[in-house]
Known about the structure:
Elements: H1 48-53, H2 68-80, H3 87-96, H4 98-108, E1 113-115, E2 121-123, E3 131-133, E4 138-139, H5 141-145, E5 153-158, E6 164-168, H6 169-185, E7 193-197, H7 202-213, E8 217-220, H8 227-237, E9 241-245, E10 247-250, E11 253-256, H9 261-265, E12 273-277, E13 294-296, H10 297-302, E14 324-329, E15 339-343, H11 347-357
Parallel strand pairs: 7-8, 7-9, 8-14, 9-12, 12-13
Antiparallel strand pairs: 1-4, 2-3, 5-6, 10-11, 14-15
Helix pairs in contact: 3-4, 6-7
Protein name: Acetoacetyl-CoA synthetase
InterPro entries: ACAS_N, AMP-binding_CS, AMP-dep_synth/lig_dom, ANL_N_sf
Pfam families: ACAS_N, AMP-binding
Amino acid sequence: MKRGSSPSELVCFTVLSLLSTMLGTACVQPYSTTISHTSNKNLSPKGFVDIISTGTRQIWNKKVPGTQMEKLRSIIQDKYGVKFENYWDFHEWSIKNYSQFWEEVWNFYEVVCSKPYDQPSRRIGDRIIDVEWFPGAELNYAENILRYRDDGVALICVDEDGKELNVTFAQMYEEVRLYAAAFKKIGLQKGDRVACYMSNRREAIYSMLAAASMGAMFGGPLPFYGPKTVAAIMNIMKPKFLITVDRFQFNKREFNTLDSLPEIVNDQEFIEKVIIIPTREGSKLKDISSVNNSCFLDEFLKRGRNSDGNIPELVFEQFSFNQPVFINFTSGTTGLPKGLVHSAGTFLPLLRDFGLHCNLDRTSVTLAMQPASIKQL
């Protein structure tokens, strides 16, 4: 879709979207403890697969008409003169004709770009990963996520104390605009890295999209990690800025992040600014001078405003499909956590998963309990 044109209905979530219920809830009976499962001693060599398959029950078998999957399937059948008798025919075609399939996904969801691609894919080697996707295209990850700027609900934020806050698409856009302006004022540029060390909060989304708007990379450790592990990840990632939180609660357990920050950041010369989000009023009264180059969120955001109080316009810098956007770290169970880099086009597989497979659109609600940095995102 050309930049500035009106988008059609699209699965527009923020990848880190918060609370929801799935579209079309199935009526499921409670799990019965009387179901017999095969004991381990009787398992075939498949082992774990047999454990999963034994005693499984069908919980959903309802035909939903007019799904996004059916619409795309019809488009492809008409365009390419093929006939799919069932889902697996369609699946096989998408694998054998992967270039055409992803081109149709791109067109179906009207990807916002300033420059069209030369071709959907280009082989650059013999390995399965040696494919350059959508060469020639120029786009911005954040611009595609923020294409809606109306009063529809974008985020439903709920904490363990029962507090609930709704954020509209328009409000989210304005927050990202302010965060981006503040980041630019303190020197964030293309290729820089912003580390996030916090629980599942809306501020993580704002800062992530702000960083993506200018071509910076965003990532970081899980908030449950101790200071030594977090410091090790910082040393791998080498972020220019760190945005974090004073404390958070998980399953009624209190985690005090603020006390760990000196050990995490004070030996990291590459961290130029530590931005602390106070979740309680009392935190603003605390002395944070022991955390090098630190400030509270309000002080940081004030820098995003001009002298007249206005906020500069949000500029979506244009990059290739392969521009690095995220660094998601593994759990570290087999050694030091490893940083997995994801590109600006990482939203396209999500449209496949949540649009085609789950049939969600911008009015649907999904539940995301995981923190911002978890690798599955």
